[in-house]
Every structure is written in structure tokens, then in C-alpha cells.
Design brief:
Number of strands: 19
Helix content: 10-25%
Distance between the termini: 39 Å
Shape: globular
Strand content: 15-25%
CATH class of the largest domain: Alpha Beta
CATH architecture of the largest domain: 4-Layer Sandwich
Largest sheet: 7 strands, mixed
Order of helices and strands: EEEEEHEEEEEEHEHEHEEHEHEHEHEHH
Radius of gyration: 21 Å
Strand order of the largest sheet: 7-8-9-10-11-18-19
Structural class: alpha/beta
């Protein structure tokens, strides 16, 4: 008989629930997958059947293909998978992103997937779910990562766009095709000028609009020709477009990127970007600690990110914590995007502890402890 306290275990295919005979966000094709969201490191192509939220069904279908069998449920609605009670709850990461709640013989686990706690206009806001074991991401699991308000960043982006227009330049704003680009679009002021989008972005804009998300008017940028004046135009594209002939046809152009990695000074300059905006769809340090606390979990499994740092911190707070090895990638900083989704923070090597400030090192040694506790 399976021990309920070991409800999920990592395998070569992904996180497996033996009691229910299904996988959560598998990294290889499996017969049945419960999927937190449609980014490529969490939604594996070729599975026999998928379960996701109603809100996220359209984007998952676009990513997996029309032939994929995609079942969906409302947030909070329970389904029984071979005796395991499964429900999905908002994660606030992208449209339809979910936390997976598993209940079996009185034991409750919650798998966060990717999440953030600040609400935005393009997805349902994060909801903390009480549990015994919480599986959390830690992409930005260092004390230096504390996000400014979303509105402040949108104001910066619009001011930059307006300044470029007045200087006779186009603006090229980089963000991963699924989720980040739509969030950026939701914050743009269309009175400043026309908005064009890369084909990878425009395809997903359609799915967002069909899902009831209000985005400003956009036009496909693929028809843009070199030599025409694009002054005042805003072009939203994935970071893989940076430096390509496609991007250069908008010259003169100022290029900016939206990513949590912009917190680290020098990242933008190393990659020849004109502007960097601190905007991430992942939870920051105070949000991560606050979310763990809100679950009431006595056991926390930490995955993809600064796992050892977060585990050490939680252990010092008296929680049972350990690293859970997975293949999830979170907000990458290596040119591949949000796990292959033409994505967030395509800026070079993964940032290491050696690159963060002395302030962070002090915090990791415990001297910044009280400030972080207050913020959590």
C-alpha cells in the first residue's frame, strides 16, 4: 500500500502519482498528464491525455496541437483519478496557469507550477491553498529579487515608447511569446502609436482574446518592409528576435526587454539592450516566503531555481524542506526563453551567486533576516 506522505515521486518521465496513475507536468510523453500551464517545460508534447484548467485550455491546445486530447475543469472543481482527488487552483503566472492540489487518504499536496502573487489583467490571480506538502518553484529565490509594482513598470515602458516616438525611432519590446508578451500588451497605451507583434506573439494573442482577455489592437509585424519609416511604432516580439535581420528592418529602433533578471546590474549592457524593465511572471523572494507561509505546509519541496538557498532559509525557520530534482527551467537567462517558449530573460548564462551584490550575500548569511521576514 502506498504511503500517502509520498504522494508524488520523481521518475525519468516526470513527477508521478502512483496512487492515481498520472503525472504532473511530465517532461516526457505519458498516458495521462495533469498540466499546470502551457510553457514547454511543463507541457510535454505527445501525451495521451491532458488535464488543465478551462481558462488555459485554448493556449494548451494551441501548443500541443489540434489532435491532442485536452480535458479541462473549472478552478476549484474536483475530479477523481483512481481514488486521488485532484483540483486546480489559480497560480497567476499566465492565462490558465494552475496549482495542482492532490488529496489522498487525508494527505494533501499542492504543486505550485510557476506562479506569481501580484495580480495582472491577463490571468486569474494566485490563490494560496492549504496543504501538508507544498512543492514550490524558486526561479528568483534570492533576497535581491523584490519586484517593483507592475503599474510603475508599465509607466516606465510607456514613457520610453513616447520618448522613442518623439526621437523618430521605433520601439522593440522583448518578452516571451506566451504570457509575458500579452501582459506587456495589456499595459501599453495605444494612444502613443501603432502596436505590431511578432507572429509567435500574434498567434497566442488570438487565443487570449478568445479566452476573454482584453488586449489593445495589434497588427502582425511580418508584413513590415525594410526602408519604410517605423517611427513611433511599438513592436512586441520574443527575445530570440533580438539582433536578427527581422528586427533590424525597424531601424532606427530602441530595444528593451522585460524580465526579472533586469534586477542584476549589467545584464542589459552585456547583451547590447537599450533598456531593461524589471517585470517577471514568477514569484519574487518576499512573495515566495509569504506563499509558503500561507499554505500552512509543514513540508516544502523546492524545485527549479535557487533551490539550496530557499531550502536553507526554510529549514532555519523550522520547516522540513528539501530540494526536489526536476527538469523545469522557469525564467531562463540563456537565450532559450521560458523553457523554449521564445522567452523571458534570453540574456546569457544563468546568473550565479557570484554575480549578485554584497547585500545579497549578507542576507543569505542571515543578517538581512528581519527585513525579509517583515516583507513576507
Amino acid at each position: 500500500m502506498m504511503d500517502p506522505s509520498k504522494l508524488l515521486r520523481p521518475t525519468e518521465l516526470g513527477l508521478y502519482c502512483e496512487a492515481g496513475d498520472f503525472f504532473v507536468d511530465p517532461w516526457r510523453p505519458v498516458p495521462r498528464a495533469v498540466v499546470t500551464h502551457a510553457h514547454a517545460d511543463h507541457a510535454c508534447w505527445g501525451c495521451g491525455r491532458y488535464l488543465t484548467s478551462n481558462e488555459g485550455r485554448r493556449v494548451l491546445q494551441v501548443r500541443m496541437g489540434h489532435e491532442a486530447i485536452v480535458d479541462s475543469v473549472e478552478f476549484g472543481e474536483s475530479v477523481d483519478l483512481n481514488g486521488v482527488k485532484v483540483s486546480l487552483h489559480p497560480a497567476g503566472h499566465i492565462l490558465g496557469s494552475s496549482q495542482v492540489r492532490l488529496e489522498y487518504r487525508g494527505e494533501i499536496w499542492v504543486v505550485s507550477g510557476d506562479y506569481k502573487v501580484e495580480p495582472d489583467a491577463t490571468c486569474s490571480p494566485f490563490e494560496a491553498v492549504r496543504c501538508h506538502t507544498f512543492v514550490t518553484e524558486s526561479t528568483f529565490g534570492l533576497p535581491i529579487y523584490r519586484w517593483p509594482s507592475q503599474q510603475a513598470i508599465f509607466d516606465e515602458i510607456n514613457a520610453w515608447w513616447r520618448s522613442n516616438r518623439d526621437a523618430g525611432k521605433a520601439s522593440l519590446l522583448l518578452g516571451y511569446a506566451l504570457g509575458k508578451s500579452q501582459r506587456l500588451l495589456s499595459g501599453l497605451d495605444p494612444s502613443i502609436g501603432p502596436i505590431l507583434t511578432h507572429g509567435a506573439v500574434e498567434k497566442l494573442n488570438r487565443a487570449y482574446r478568445e479566452g476573454g482577455i482584453d488586449l489593445p489592437p495589434t497588427a502582425y509585424a511580418g508584413t513590415a518592409t525594410k526602408g519604410k519609416s517605423w517611427a513611433g511604432v511599438m513592436v512586441v516580439a520574443p527575445p530570440s528576435a533580438h539582433g536578427t535581420p527581422w528586427a533590424r528592418k525597424f531601424a532606427p529602433v530602441s530595444t528593451g526587454i522585460a524580465s526579472g533578471w533586469m534586477t542584476i546590474r549589467g545584464t542589459r549592457r552585456r547583451k547590447a539592450l537599450d533598456r531593461g524593465f524589471i517585470l517577471s511572471d514568477h514569484v519574487d523572494w518576499p512573495g515566495l516566503l509569504g506563499s509558503v507561509d500561507a499554505t500552512g505546509a509543514s513540508r516544502v519541496l523546492v524545485t527549479h531555481g535557487y533551490t539550496s538557498v530557499v531550502v536553507k532559509w526554510l529549514e532555519e525557520k523550522g520547516l522540513q524542506a528539501e530540494v526536489l530534482a526536476t527538469r523545469y527551467e522557469g525564467e531562463r537567462d540563456d537565450g532559450g526563453g521560458e523553457a523554449g517558449d521564445l522567452g523571458e530573460g534570453d540574456l546569457g548564462e544563468t546568473i550565479t551567486l557570484g554575480e549578485v551584490s554584497n547585500e545579497v550575500q549578507i542576507a543569505l548569511d542571515g543578517e538581512g533576516e528581519s527585513e525579509t521576514e517583515d516583507d513576507a
